[in-house]
């Protein structure tokens, strides 16, 4: 399996658009409980786009929940049921179901299990969760009244 990451940022008068592109190419397919090597069978490209309004810093493009990515980009294309995933990684179907429904986030423990199973990194899964959590927080957290701390002004006032 090979994986590449790329970031692209465009900034204009109306705001900023940051795109994270994650491309994963599997050199094997999952068959039963073992991997069978062979030619690349599937190319997965996941693009997460966040568009930020320059004035309010509110994301206007939703970021998918990691459970949605798990379901639509891993389980369905590979023909893996939630029950099978749960059994194979040593967790409950209920926990997998909650994740794929967006009712439960990806923990560090789950990230390690998913990375071992799908052959990618725990950081991939935690990164998806972090992006989602930040997007959700930006929808509800107003930071406009917070005045940024200025190191120079602070140092000057103590002189």
TrEMBL record:
PANTHER family: ANTITOXIN HIGA-1 (PTHR36924). Coiled coil: none annotated. Pfam families: HTH_3. CDD domains: HTH_XRE. This is HigA family addiction module antidote protein. GO terms for molecular function: DNA binding. It comes from the Bacteria. It comes from Corynebacterium aurimucosum.
């Amino acid at each position: 399996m090979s994986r590449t990451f790329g970031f692209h940022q465009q900034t204009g008068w109306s705001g900023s658009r940051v795109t994270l592109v994650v491309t994963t190419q599997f050199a094997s397919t999952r068959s039963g409980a073992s991997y069978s090597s062979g030619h690349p069978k599937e190319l997965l490209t996941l693009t997460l786009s966040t568009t930020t309004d320059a004035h309010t810093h509110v994301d206007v493009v939703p970021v998918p929940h990691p459970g949605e990515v798990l379901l639509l980009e891993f389980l369905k294309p590979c023909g893996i049921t939630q029950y099978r995933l749960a059994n194979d990684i040593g967790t409950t179907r209920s926990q997998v179901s909650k994740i794929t429904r967006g009712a439960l986030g990806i923990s560090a423990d789950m990230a390690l299990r998913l990375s071992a199973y799908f052959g990618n990194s725990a950081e991939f899964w935690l990164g998806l969760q972090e992006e989602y959590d930040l997007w959700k927080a930006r929808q509800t957290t107003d930071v406009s009244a917070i005045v940024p701390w200025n190191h120079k002004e602070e140092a000057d006032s103590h002189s």
